[in-house]
Amino acid sequence: MNIHEHQAKALLKEYGAPVAAGVAIFSVDEAEAAARSLPGPLYVVKSQIHAGGRGKGKFKELGPDAKGGVRLAKSIEEVVAHAKEMLGNTLVTAQTGEAGKQVNRLYVEDGADIARELYCSLLVDRSVGQVAFVVSTEGGMDIEAVAHDTPEKIVTVAINPEAGVTDADVAKIVAALKLDGVAAEDAKSLFPILYKAFSDTDMALLEVNPLIVMENGHLRVLDAKVSFDGNALFRHDNIKALRDESEEDSKEIEASKWDLAYVALDGNIGCMVNGAGLAMATMDIIKLYGKEPANFCDVGGGAGKDKVAAAFKIITADPKVEGILVNIFGGIMKCDVIAEGVVAAVQEVGLKVPLVVRLEGTNVELGKKILNESGLAITAADDLDDAAKKIVAAING
Ligand code: ADP
Ligand code: MG
What we know:
Number of domains: 3
Domain ATP-grasp: 9-237
Binding site for Mg(2+): 209, 223
Helix content: 25-40%
Binding site for substrate: 274, 331-333
Bound molecules: adenosine-5'-diphosphate, magnesium ion
Number of helices: 13
Pfam families: ATP-grasp_2, Ligase_CoA
EC number: 6.2.1.5
Strand content: 25-35%
CATH topology of the largest domain: Rossmann fold
Largest sheet: 6 strands, antiparallel
């Protein structure tokens, strides 16, 4: 689950990280008061969307010459003018895709005098099985380009979970970022704070780009992008409350209510599968036969009829879906439960596209019987290969 920059900064501030004063606003009316509460004379008006690259982004409605999604302002009037121009418009960045994202809230922040822009992120480094800092002196711009062109400028420091961030770890990061004086002093508290925030709240990613050295020598978190491990959200009610559903795919929101492992994709074959491995294999074989999956969907082992029906409805509600492939290996999951769920969902929402079902395993005969007797136009398949061929053929008509 992702959150907005202003929420991430509020969270990091609770842990003691240095962030600027700022106010989130949802309407132009709130802009003036927000700016007045800040020290000035420099302000920054920042679009709050769940995507990076906002500074270089463009508003669809404003044309190519208008300013981007992060704007400096030198007066309160200018803050208000920016807010008027930005709120409600659609920001397109390198990360939003062509459709862009509507800006429904802004963060009005105290402007910083920047001496250097650095990069710092924390992530779970699976190669060492530890949380690691990834830092670079080349912050503020496209870190992917730095990784590609000058990988030696990116330094990874993995943290031993038992020891936490040691003085030696901080020293490595300080050296990699070429910090000295007050900034090196600030580093001693900042990096352990970031690590604690990351582990306490089960983050999957914490990206501070840029982390800045200010003209006065101090460090400041200038941008913050945070995503949390969805599987750990059940133990963080305060973080769940930060969710902004307007930023998410409506199908994925519905799926998460049913605890379905569902990811919307760009293709046009809807898939309903049990087990992540089988779901991946199903997606692979669809591609092998020349089509693209519309989603990843793992209904899991213990799904009941209602959950199966919910998954099927989410898949059929996607206008891109031209055909559906149900691929179930009944181990813990019983084939008759799947069949009942599919039939219940189709009775409720109808079936406008071809449906191929491959069932195997526990109660397979009963499952097939339920489907056969339902009177629905279902194409049965014997195995995975047969199923993929049949759904691709059905779509190609
Ligand atoms: P994004 O990464 O989405 O483009 P950032 O928050 O990193 O958004 O902002 C882009 C750039 O805007 C930063 O690299 C920095 O140069 C400038 N900037 C952002 N916030 C401030 C601020 N509070 N004071 C001064 N400059 C800022
Ligand atoms: Mg940034």
